[in-house]
Specification:
The protein is α+β, with helices and mostly antiparallel strands. The protein contains 7 helices and 14 strands.
Length: 423
């Protein structure tokens, strides 16, 4: 009878415990307890599964913490590897992915791309040689005309070029004495490029002064090397456009691909309006990252006049080369107006607003008379432009003017008159 009482007492405890918590449906579990065993000891003995569960939870928690620590270590390793890859790409050891398009492993889509600091110095040496040649021409002019002011400025520029040659020679010696990658030459290269740009501008001013002032639209921009720092920038942005026409004179013999004659980027869209020919692909026009292939053949080292018209209605486009219609298409970014407040760059493709240049997509050659209209030009108007007819009109959105474009990194401005200096 006493044993039955103990069993009923345990059953009542189980019932009370189930009633104090909301477990939904409950059930009674009958457990026999020896007559002489302490009730508390019996209760602790029956709680074994709960203790096992607690131990399992602690083990799982410890495992999670260990995995979290492993993940953090892996993230740190990834960051280190990413940093090393970036350094390798900047030194030309690895080829970066160009403009969001995948390149075939080990394949160089641009044959004359700089591969490292030594190649960069070689490019700077070529630029210095060009500057020296231009100074010699100015010196010959000053001897013939006896200009004291020209002589004074020429001497100043000659001294600066001599200093630049010393910097390049010093850098070569540093590269020979140190192991590759031990010293970051970015700051020094930026200083050299800044000085070169200043020298080019001073020589341009001197040349204009020696030959008399030229009309603001009678010039070309030359991009002699494929780099990620040589470019020109239009000072003003484009307005919102539901149609456009752009025309320009272009000359290049770069192969494969002439690069990017111009790119227009806006906040949130780096490929708002781009003209590009890279690798063995045909020239393309991109509008809001939508692509149309163009039937141009221009990398023969001769001057060509190209025009493209486009309207947002149905995305209809036309392509003209040397005044002749070469191709048409539709459904190119239909009903997408060209957005305003962007950055217009000549000679480079932008991966970010106003920057993110990639040498593999840089333009090599010469550009002139780049004009933009906010309407579709007629075939007759385009023919007048290509044949230098006096009835040809300048762009109402962008008119080619020397005062509206700045050059950087060694790009240069030269006197140019279309149809008089062709080929």
């Amino acid at each position: 009878m006493e044993r039955i009482s103990w069993t009923l007492f345990l059953l009542s405890l189980t019932y009370l415990e189930g009633s104090s918590q909301d477990f939904g449906q409950t059930q009674f579990i009958c457990t026999s307890v020896p007559k002489d065993m302490d009730l508390c000891a019996a209760t602790m003995q029956n709680s074994g599964p709960a203790e096992d569960l607690k131990t399992t939870v602690m083990q799982l928690r410890e495992t999670v913490l260990q995995q979290k620590e492993t993940i953090m270590n892996q993230k740190e390793t990834i960051r280190e590897l990413t940093s090393k890859l970036s350094r390798c790409e900047s030194q030309g050891v690895l080829e970066p992915v160009a403009g969001g398009r995948k390149k075939e492993p080990g394949k160089n889509t641009m044959g004359d791309v700089s591969r490292g600091p030594t190649d960069t110095l070689a490019q700077l040496g070529k630029t210095l040689a060009t500057l020296k040649q231009r100074l010699e021409n100015l010196e010959q002019y000053s001897r013939n005309n006896g200009s004291v002011q020209a002589n004074s400025l020429k001497d100043l520029l000659q001294n600066k070029i001599d200093d630049m040659e010393k910097q390049v020679l010093s850098r070569v010696n540093t590269l020979e004495e140190s192991k590759p990658g031990q010293k970051n030459d970015t700051d020094q290269r930026n200083r050299v490029e800044s000085t070169l740009t200043s020298l080019h501008q001073r020589i341009n001013d001197l040349e204009k002064g020696s030959k008399g002032s030229r009309p603001l639209d009678k010039f070309q921009i030359t991009f002699p090397l494929r780099t990620n720092y040589m470019y020109a920038k239009v000072k003003k942005s484009l307005p919102e456009m539901y149609a456009f026409s752009f025309c320009l004179w272009i000359k290049s013999n770069a192969s494969p691909g002439v690069g990017t004659p111009f790119s227009y980027a806006v906040p949130g869209q780096a490929n708002e309006l781009v003209l590009i020919e890279w690798g063995n692909n045909p020239m393309e026009i991109l509008i809001n990252d939508k692509v149309a292939k163009l039937p141009f053949v221009i990398n023969d080292g001769k001057w060509h006049h190209i025009c493209i018209t486009w309207t947002t209605r149905d995305g209809v486009w036309e392509a003209f080369q040397d005044g002749v219609l070469r191709g048409t298409g539709e459904n190119l970014a239909p009903y997408h107006p060209i957005k305003p407040n962007g950055v217009l760059v000549l000679g480079q493709e932008q991966d970010t607003l106003g920057g993110g240049f990639d040498a593999t997509q840089a333009f090599v050659g010469e550009l002139a008379n780049f004009n933009i209209w906010d309407r579709k030009l007629t075939a007759g108007e385009i023919y007048n432009l290509a044949t230098c007819n006096n009835r040809a009109q300048a762009g109402n959105v962008l008119s080619w003017s020397e005062s509206s474009i700045d050059v950087f990194g060694g790009a240069t401005k030269w006197t140019f008159e279309p149809c008089r200096q062709l080929n």
